[in-house]
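Recall the central idea of this unit: under ordinary conditions, the amino acid sequence of a chain determines the structure it adopts. In this exercise we apply that idea directly, starting from the sequence alone.
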Amino acid sequence: MALFADISKRDISFLESEFLTYLLMRFFIGDNSVNINGSDFFYIPVKNIVFSNENTGEKVSIETETIDTCKELYTALKNAKSVSLLQLQLKNETMSIDICLKNAPLRITKVGAPKSIAEDYVDKIIERKLYVRTVFDFYDIMIKDFVNIRISNEWFDFLKNFKNFLKTV
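Accordingly, the structure predicted from this sequence is:
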């Protein structure tokens, strides 16, 4: 046995699905707000969520307009399936941006910004850049938050709160 393991060969891909599941869990326990560059945003899962079970290879795709009342979604979470695709809307009082996140590798696969209100072509480009920058900032903030909670004892309290929530639905 080697004294120092080669950490480059460790499989930590489970953290990708765990991050997406974490975002979904935060939504359900009511902790889905985030401050991005001084503006308060919140996110909501929308339309399509794909769950997978690494052990069995099973994938479950749930498409619904009413995420918080979807029984199939709660069943998948209770059966410890992890999220492999998550569509979100990032909102504040002035904008709504659609985002799609996937794992393997963890990435942003879609940014759907609102219709541009700018008239000048250059202003439209600047406006789009602002939307994309907001999505990247959201992604960075949530990843950092996930990592900080995941490596602390807070993680166990977070999981306990979510399990208690699942018992009520």
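Residues 12-157 form one domain.
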